[in-house]
Structures are given as structure tokens and as C-alpha cells.
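Issue 218. Parser rejects a valid record. Input:
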Amino acid sequence: MDAEMIEHWNDDAANYGDIITDELASFRVEAWRKLFREKMTTQTDRVLDFGCGPGFLSIVAATLGYRVTGIDSSPEMLKLAEKNALTLGDRAQNIEWRELDVTEIGDAFLPASFDVILSRNVTWTLRDPSRTYRDCYRLLKPSGKLFIFDANWNLPLFDTELRAETERRYRLCMERYGDAFESKTPIKAELDVKKLPLSSVRRPQWDEQILRDCGFRSIEVIPDITPELWDDKEKLLYGATPLFGVFAAK
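Output the parser choked on:
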């Protein structure tokens, strides 16, 4: 496991947990449910959520009756996920939480174990994202699907115009809302995001090519899936690097 990464997300768990708590009490739950209904196959039963954090996508999937395995390397994130899942009542039993690094999924599960594998805001953190996509291909059942939701979060560090636009949006967000989802407690284990392999890469073009190389036969890319999933504050703050969706079928 990546000790630096685990320490960082343990430090950020409380802040990220507050964000997820707000999401679970908002319009976003039904918006994501609608998206899942559109993209999941009728045969979907078992779902893997890698890098599940405080459990938002796992919980949304469980509300639709799927059997979900949510994995994360951060024990503090998983504590919050288990707490958040209590809102499901009996359906909380549909989720198995496991403390597991994404780099270990290839050995932790049998081939063809899942109908759908999904993640949100995780791929950008990976030291070897190509390997993870290969592992996902192996773990999916025939005709299984991989859903990746992510953004070019760190690309402004390498693109002058994009940096200026993100800084402009940040200033407007602070003027209008008074905060920008930043942690109220110090994060001791700061990541050097410039060293992460995808920070300077333009996506989802990269994802589409790698997924084809892995063997995925059908890939749908939505460059911006935020219109129905984000509120006005998120659209203002993050609009220069919107969340994209990649839906790949084995």
C-alpha cells in the first residue's frame, strides 16, 4: 500500500466526509440514481466501487438493489462510509466495506467477479493507472462495464491559460460563497501532485486509449457530465475542469 497516500486521505477524511454528507442529503442522490439506471445493464448484480471514500457511490448503488463492495485504503474514510450507510437501513447489508488498496484488487478478487466496476475522483491519484484498468478488465464478467468519473484536476498546474481560469473561478467562488470546499483542519501529509503520472495528461482522451488497449470493446465518453450532477457552486469553482464520465464495456 502507498503509505503517503493513505496518510493524506486519512488527514482529509473529515473534510471530505462533510462534503459527502451534504451530497447524500441533496438532489445529487437521485441524479446519480438516474445516471446509474441509464448505464447499468438489467443483469447488473455485483458492483465494485474502488476508492469509495465516505461511500457516496456505493450507497447510491445499494439503493438500487445492487450488491456492492466498497474498497478504500484509508481506514478513516471507511469509518465514515460505514456511518453514512446507516441511512440505508436494511439495505446497508447490501454493502461490504473492505480496507484495500486499489493496487491489490487484482489479487483480492477472482476474475469475472463483478458486473460493474466504478469509481469517482480516484484515477488521478493512482501511481499506475494503466495497471488498475487492466485489473478492472480481468475482474469484470463478460459484457461487464467500467464506469470512471474523474476530471483534469491538476492540469492547471501545467497549462497557463487553464490556471488563470481556475484562479478566476476560485476568486469568484470565495466572493460569492465564502469558501471553496477547503479543509478546515491542516493536512499534514500533503501530496506532491506534480509527481502523479496523470496530472499533466489531458483526459478523458488518455483513458479512452488505454481502455481500448486493455481490450474494452465499446467505450462511451461524456466530456462533461456535470449539468445534472453539480450545483451552481461546483459549476463555478470547478467548471474549467468538469467531471467527465467514461463508460467502457468488456
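Fixed in the parser; the record now loads. The first strand starts at residue 46 and ends at 50.
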